Amino acid sequence: MNQTYSVEKYIESRVIGRLEHMWYSCTWEQENNIKRDPEYGCILHKKMLPYYGMYLNGDTRLCKKNMENIRLFMKNVIEEDKEFGAWASQQNLIAMAEGWGDNMQRIEEPKRMSQYFQVLEHLFNTGCQQDWKKLSEELEEDLFKAEVYSDYRTDELLSVLHAFTMIMQQDWTHNEKWEQFGLLTKHWKFLKYYYSIMIRHIVGVKYTRWTDVTDTVMKSSSSFFPHLHIYYCGLTERIGSLGLDFKHFKKLDDMRMKMLSVVNSHEPSEALYTLCDALFPADFQRMLNEHRPKTYGELEDENKRKDKILEELRQENQETRDQIERLTRKYRAAIEASIPIEDIERELLSLPINTAWDIFCSLNELLADHDVWRSYDRQIRKKLKSKFNEEEAKKEKLYDVMEKVANKPTKYIDKFLNSGAYYDNDGATIIPSMDKNKVEHPYLVAEAND
């Protein structure tokens, strides 16, 4: 049991006595060389429980400034403790985040957020099991809908915890979850601004104006640029619901347009798409589809596609013109070969009316001095116009029939509704009247008669 006593003494010296200098030579790795008692793990877990609670809740008695040695020690102990995951599964993780929020208010230190991510990493690696969906819903109630918010540090920690719960409830493999958690950790400096715009209040920074947040996103780090379009889509969607007066709305919208130029000057990355879709499944993909600016590559491809279509149209038009010219030459050759005009007229009238008219007009120009053709000119012109008028009349008649068919169901339904029938609650189904003296549904009557 000496080793367990050594562990307890080591912790007490750091937490209570602050006598860290006495234990620098007695590292955890050195203690691992000692042969352990079979009950070592159980005793270690029991001895560590108070300190686990302090560590998970950011208790300032343990989680002090410059706590790197404590962090490393806790990491090694938790890795050795096979019961930590089961114990952590019973803990209140929201209270844990709020405890770390209190810690960060008391201790100003850049690495504090990384310490909290380390705690979440322990939960992940030790198999902590909670009702992640229920927990995420509780956090959404606090973060997304509350009218009174906590301080910006605590809300940032709650946002991180929300992201963690959304990852944990996905139908992914362990490695896939670990990969997305790694992206969350790596890109949180950017994602906290995205969270801010998505939940409509600022987390993680002291700013009170959205223009300051947006300006920081554009200028603070070049690593943000590949993902800037994600924030832009969120801002475009949310700008009207941030409760801004006209002056601040106009200023933020002007900044949004400046951001658009930055977005357009950088190739967008899809590295965070899977993660963001998991964090905001109801909105992310839709916002991306509706608001993401086209990339230079996409615009270039679209222009190429338009140019290709135009070129195809030009080619087809040219082929049509060439075909008409070939037909015109053949008709001219037939006329000059003294083929009866009646035969030529019959073939001309068999063509589509527009094509026939084009050929006829071209022949008139080419054969202006041909006496025989000129003698039939008026007759052929009259027949072509008559054919054109007949085809137009057929089209009009067809349009009239289609319009009557389109209006007919409405007429029946109106008559049916006037008989006492009514729509059901969803407005999709008509319920017939129970009055036998009223007119029945016309479709039912027709079916019965058949």
- DSSP helical segment count: 21
Could you tell me the number of beta strands?
2
Q: Quaternary state, please? A: single chain
Structural class: mainly alpha
**What number is the mean pLDDT?**
81
Q: Whole-Å distance between the termini?
A: 96 Å
Helix content: 55-70%
* Uncertain spans: 14-30, 422-430, 434-450
Rg from C-alpha positions?
A: 39 Å
Main β-sheet description: 2 strands, antiparallel
Name its key features.
mainly alpha; 450 residues; single chain; two-stranded antiparallel ribbon; elongated
Question: Would you kindly provide a written description of the structure presented here, covering whatever features stand out?
Answer:
With 450 residues, the chain is mainly alpha-helical. It has helices spanning 2-15, 28-31, 40-56, 68-80, 84-88, 93-106, 112-125, 132-144, 152-168, 174-186, 188-199, 210-219, 228-238, 246-264, 273-279, 284-291, 296-336, 341-349, 353-366, 371-418, 442-449; strands at residues 422-423, 430-431. It has a two-stranded antiparallel sheet. Strand 1 and strand 2 (430-431) form a beta hairpin. Helix 6 (93-106) packs antiparallel against helix 9 (152-168) and helix 9 runs antiparallel to helix 10. The longest helix is centred in the C-terminal third of the chain and has 48 residues, at 371-418.
